[in-house]
Amino acid sequence: MGVYSEYANSYPDIINMWNRGTNLYRSRYGNSLEEYGRQHWEKFGIKENRMLPADPLYAAYVDAYPDLKISFASGDTGAPSKAAYGKFHWEKYGQAEQRSLSGPPDPMVELARQAQNFENQIAQQQEQFQQQVTEQQRQAQEQLATQQQKAQEAQRQLMINMQRGDRAPAAVKTTSSAAERSGLTRRGTTGYFGRRGMRIGSLNVPSTGLAIATNTQMPTSGSFA
């Protein structure tokens, strides 16, 4: 028996019309209950929210959900069978409500699934954190290497400058002029001895420790008797 024959047989009003129909009436449907059921379904059944017979799996779907089981048992669904009601509910509501044809998941299985999802999230977060730490360490090492290179270059330039006299710091320059060397080395008194004693040609006395009155004149030459 085909699905449309089952459809016709599942609704008393439809099968009664077929059984009471004359041969002329039946000939309009090819003298076939299957064809009669198909045409009725397509012309009237869909609009009347009637249901085609369904796989027994849909009956198990109804039994798996207490609310669907109670709804079908009330007799208000208009479904010719539990499987038909299950098929109707699944296609119109069940999928959108994320129900399962095999019924609600086992609580322990669902708990294990949630725990696994949580572990996966933690592992992903740890991996991302480790990647961030590794990247920060790499950047810090690059900055340190750059600073070391700059310090080495500055030290090298300093050594070059110290080795070049024309660019040596003022603090390390030495006296080079003849006048300055003469001024540093010439100290003391010069003169000669004559018949009257020693004649002083010049007298160089450091200013420190020597006080001379403002009205005293010091001769640049003379003799001691």
Instruction: Describe the strand arrangement of the main beta sheet, using strand numbers.
Output: 1-2
N-to-C CA distance: 169 Å
Q: Would you list the SSEs in sequence order as H and E?
A: HHHHHHHHHEE
Strand content: 5-15%
**Structural class of the helices, strands and pairings?**
mainly alpha
Average pLDDT figure: 76
Give the overall form.
Answer: rod-shaped
Q: How many individual β-strands?
A: 2
Tell me the Rg in angstroms: 60 Å
For the largest beta-sheet, the strand count, sense and barrel status come to: 2 strands, antiparallel
Provide structural commentary.
With 225 residues, the chain is mostly helical. It is 58% helix and 7% strand. The chain is built from 9 helices and 2 strands; from the N terminus they run H-H-H-H-H-H-H-H-H-E-E. It is rod-shaped, with a radius of gyration of 60 Å. Mean pLDDT is 76; it is low at 168-175, 207-218 and 220-225.
Key features of this structure:
225 residues, mainly alpha, 2 strands, 58% helix, rod-shaped, disordered C terminus
Summarize the structure in short.
The protein is mainly alpha-helical.
Question: Secondary-structure map with pairings?
Answer:
Elements: H1 3-10, H2 12-20, H3 23-27, H4 33-45, H5 56-64, H6 66-73, H7 82-94, H8 107-163, H9 178-185, E1 188-194, E2 197-204
Antiparallel strand pairs: 1-2
Helix pairs in contact: 1-4, 5-6, 5-7
